[in-house]
Design brief:
heterodimer; A: alpha+beta; Ubiquitin-like (UB roll); five-stranded mixed β-sheet; 2 helices; 5 strands; B: alpha/beta; Rossmann fold; Oxidized Rhodanese, domain 1; 2 domains; five-stranded parallel β-sheet; 13 strands
Chain lengths: ~90, ~375
């Protein structure tokens, strides 16, 4: 199951600057695992040790907020990773 | 207060808009708006609000104008370098529109003064470059019941949202907390100069809409902008029942004195090494053996150039990887400017490392003082 993940600016150092990444997985957890296999360390920037979404991160499938990593992802979905920004 | 003949002429294009008209322009004239941070976001926001005829504009900034500000902070010109930002901005805005009043607040917002400063205004625009101040301002606006238009930028990306008391979620509902240093600042990561122009004008637009009561405010929606792809998007979010400040049982009932990870108590035991002090220690075999250099920048920055023998542990991974620090050595944390390395020190102290060290001024200072051939990424 292939979807697209949009990477926020602060995490693009993990993806060599790429803003969108194709990833596989039937759930958000599987999609993040797919990302982690290619970009080591990126999952930890979004998900903490208790498998919770970090408080400065929000995940959306298309425009619907992700509240559980078990939420299904279907082919063609866009998973958006939103990261708090600090610059002014 | 009615509009004068000069004002009727100045604001003619507004008066021609039936949605705004004379009533809307008088509302703008009677409004008081405060802009937190006279920087990349605050510059275009304040200029447009002044031009639009907002009767009283407040500008809060403790800083002075630097040469590196001028790439994006369009309130200032070269002659303003070294001047207090709030004062220089005041002159610029009054030159643009002498019909308005501008109040310069040259101060650092903190828990002790934020309520007093914001209390005198109708709408708050947050364009600060510090997460701690961002949360401080949000919390103060919730406590005071003030509308807040918040924006933030990073490299080529920007965010904006509006909080209206009683009508929608606040910034903490969006991001309950974020530690300074985990999210890189523009000083460290860089920013496209024109980017805050887009986000700052969105903030000004929102302020005008709130004051005049027109349109649909950006409430319960996070607007995002990617300059490289010229892509706008929006993501809905709702009020959290467990929000610490606007939730059902708030735990924040007064401005927080410390919301950053690197508070003063945490950092009192940090050895702050100047570039020359670090160079001397590295040159001495005995001292060198007692140090381990930990570069806490992102891998991409590390790969561009790093100090010989340095290991890369990005600051966001440090809490998880603190066990990798060798026993019996003093970790010396390094980053581009010295901000992330201070956060790393705070994290290390929390993890039980008694006296970490960091490079004051970061690798930028190292390049300036010790090794001009050292290439610092993201400059």
């Amino acid at each position: 199951m292939s979807c697209t993940v949009r990477i926020p600016s602060p995490l693009r150092s993990y993806t060599a600057g790429a803003a969108t990444i194709a990833a596989d997985g039937g759930t958000v957890e599987e999609v993040l695992a797919s990302l982690e296999r290619r970009f080591s360390g990126i999952r930890f920037r979004m998900i903490d040790e208790q498998s919770r979404i970090r408080p400065h991160i929000r995940l959306y499938i298309n425009t619907g907020e992700v509240t559980a990593l078990s939420q299904p992802v279907v082919a063609g979905d866009i998973v958006h990773v939103i990261c708090a920004l600090s610059g002014g | 207060m009615p509009l004068s003949a000069a004002e009727l002429s100045r604001y003619h294009r507004h008066l021609s808009l039936p949605e705004l008209g004379r009533d809307g322009q008088e509302r703008l004239k009677n409004a008081r708006v405060v802009v937190i941070g006279a920087g990349g976001l605050g510059s275009p926001a304040a200029l447009y609000l002044a031009a639009a005829g907002v009767g009283t504009l407040g500008l809060v900034d403790f800083d002075r104008v630097e040469l590196s500000n001028l790439q994006r902070q369009v309130l200032f010109d070269t002659a303003a370098i070294g001047r207090a930002k709030a004062e220089a901005a005041r002159e610029r805005l009054l030159a643009l529109n002498p019909e308005i009043s501008v109040v310069a607040h040259t101060l650092t917002l903190d828990a002790g003064n934020v309520l007093d400063v914001l209390r005198g205004y109708d709408v708050v625009l947050d364009g600060t470059d510090r997460l701690t101040t961002r949360y401080l301002v949000n919390d103060a606006c919730v406590l005071l019941g003030k509308p807040l238009v918040s924006a933030a930028i990073h490299r080529f990306e920007g965010h904006a949202m509006t909080y209206l008391p009683g009508r929608g979620p606040c910034y903490r509902c969006l991001f309950p907390e974020a530690e300074e240093g985990v999210v890189a600042s523009c000083a460290e990561a860089g920013v496209l100069g024109v980017l805050p122009g887009v986000l700052g004008t969105i903030q000004a637009t929102e302020a005008i809409k709130i004051i005049t009561g027109i349109g649909e405010p950006l409430v319960g929606r996070l607007a995002t902008y990617d300059a490289l792809e010229l892509r706008f998007a929006e993501f809905p979010f709702t009020r959290r029942a467990d929000c610490a400040v606007c939730g059902e049982h708030p735990t924040i009932t007064a401005p927080l004195r410390t919301v950053a990870s690197c508070d003063t108590a945490d950092l009192s035991s940090v050895h702050r090494l100047t570039p020359s002090a670090l160079r001397d220690r590295l040159a001495s075999d005995g001292s060198r053996a007692a140090l381990v250099l930990i570069d806490v920048r992102d891998p991409q920055e590390f790969d561009t150039c790093h100090l010989e023998g340095a290991r890369n542990i990005p600051v966001a991974e440090l809490a998880r990887r603190v066990g990798e620090l060798p026993d019996g050595c003093t970790p010396v944390f390094l980053c581009r400017s010295g901000r992330r390395s201070l956060t790393a020190c705070a994290l290390a102290i929390r993890a039980g490392i008694g006296a970490p060290a960091h490079l004051e001024g970061g690798l930028l200072a190292w390049a300036a003082e010790v090794d001009p051939t050292f290439e610092v990424a993201g400059g």
